[in-house]
Amino acid sequence: VRNSNMAIFSKPLSVNPTCYELGHCWTPYCHKASTDIASHVFKESLKIYGTLYLVAGILRKRGLNYYVKKFVPETIRSSLFLTINGTLFISMFCIWRYIFGFYLFYNAYICGIPACIVSILIEQKQRRGALAVYLTNLAIETGYRMLVERKIVSPVRNGEVYLFSAVSAVYLYLFRKKDGLGDATQSLFKFIMGSDECPQTLPTLLSEKSAATSGREHRHDHLIDSSRTTKSYQDSYSHRGSRSSLEVDVRKSQGGSIFGDKSSSGGSLGEDETSSAGSLAGDETSSGGSLVGDESLSGVSFVGDETSSGGSLLRDETSSLGSLAGEEETSTESLESSSSRPRGSKALLSSSTSSSLQATIYMILQKLPLLSSLVGGVKEQLRPVLRSFEQLPRHKCCHHNHSCISYVLKGGAKMFTLGYVVQSMINSLSVASRILKKPSTLKNTWFSKLNLKLAAFLGGYCAVFRAVNCILRWIRNKDSELHGCIAGALAGLSLRFYRSITIALYTATKLMEILYFKGIHFYGFPYIKSADIFIYAFSTAFILHAAVLEPHTLRPGYWKFLLRVTNNRFAFMNRKLLDVFGVNSSKIQPDYWPDYEPGFSTLTRNNS
């Protein structure tokens, strides 16, 4: 099997059905097929982008001026981008058959590249990099599924967990390093992990804590000496103070970032504004639609692929948390303004972004009286216990206010609660119609064990990171950025509670962008002009190739997205004619055969 499959790539075969017999089987007319696709994609795109930009505008508290002058043009432009992507693809499919008279194994890929290049040029520049990263992630996942399907590689048990662990080690090392991450990415990690491990805010935190604790007369031998720690901190980072001045405006000197108009050193996890809601590269938004998720609203997740009954928050693209929170503006700032900004203002920007995100979430929670009273009651019951934990010792190198145990428990509990509440809210929205008919369903939804998956992941991710940092400070009697690397690797194992190859691949792809961007800044890596355009085109063309010949290897949510925006036209292809290539093209619909119009085809199920 392996040899025959590998032969497919080295010696492609050809088939010669008409474009009607193979592709647009619902109509024998090429122009009608193209207009059908254009009409359906444009209508669905307006729904997707209209809702997306509306929600983004509300969360960013944009004024009336935005909705009057920018909302409609942005929605139409993004909708045209997606429409042209789909329409040109099927048109190129017909043009190829008209010119050459046959189809090759790689025809969908060849036809997809020019269609994707033209369409991405229509989209807003600040979104191209995000789309390129997202589609690269999806293409890698699809390629891996192809290799598994061909039995060339075997799946690694918990492989996505180990990948995420390795990626987290690098991310959280950079998080603990001065100017290691861009503002938007730093803000996201500060929201999850807290600001006590973040070097940009440590001097301020230390001075505040010094004032708050100066009146205490008895403390443990290992309690922090604020003045000594502040000096130690300043000394440890002073040798890197000049490094930030070396940062230059790459967009100015070389024309942009490797993936488009990025500003901070490496982009961010959260700046992929609407990355997934578009491009035939968009995400599944069917049946009520997640805005930026791969599944329907009932399957939205952090970047997860699993779609338990109600789904989960942070899908693809961390987009639903990050991009809607407003990182688009951050991604369009110049590097020069970022690096030349006073250090305090950079920390302030990250802090304000994180604070606004927290404020939005808490505002939503406050509007739910039952939930608010429940949380308040739990806090009152736990307050004496928490106070007793706060009196326990902390190491002199720790920068948090209270004991190490209190620090770990508070962080883990906060993110666990957030994960549980958000998952429950999304699950409730996914079954809203059932709740209206039968209100008792709400109780079952909120107390479902499925809500614990995201909660355990986020809570464990934060708690393990904090705990390992504190433990290493106690063991080594000093603080170090390398602690973030070790803590990140161990914290990343918490993905075991919420396994998702999508999270792992997306964060890995984004990390590659960040590191390459840093290489451009500091090590003279080559800058590739318009790289975002070509990366998007090649990645999306590969995914369209898979959608034609091997749809069973696509992420299920993305396949549903393609069916939604094309009104199921993608499913109407006669993939029985492609089985000759040996990749089991008709696996997803083994019994389907088109009802051809008489006079336009002589094919029958038996003579094919």
From TrEMBL:
Pfam families: TMEM135_C_rich (PF15982)
InterPro entries reported for this sequence: Tmem135, TMEM135_N
One cellular component (GO) term of this entry: endomembrane system
Region (Disordered): 209-349
Subcellular location: Endomembrane system
Main subcellular localisation: membrane
Transmembrane segments: 79-99, 105-122, 159-175
Ranges of Polar residues composition bias in the record: 226-236
Keywords of the record: Membrane, Transmembrane, Transmembrane helix
Membrane topology, record value: Multi-pass membrane protein
Origin superkingdom: Eukaryota
UniProt domain Transmembrane protein 135 N-terminal: residue ranges: 18-148
Biased composition (Basic and acidic residues): 215-225
Similarity section: Belongs to the TMEM135 family.
Designated name of the protein: Transmembrane protein 135 N-terminal domain-containing protein
Source organism per UniProt: Arion vulgaris
Gene name as annotated: ORF133508
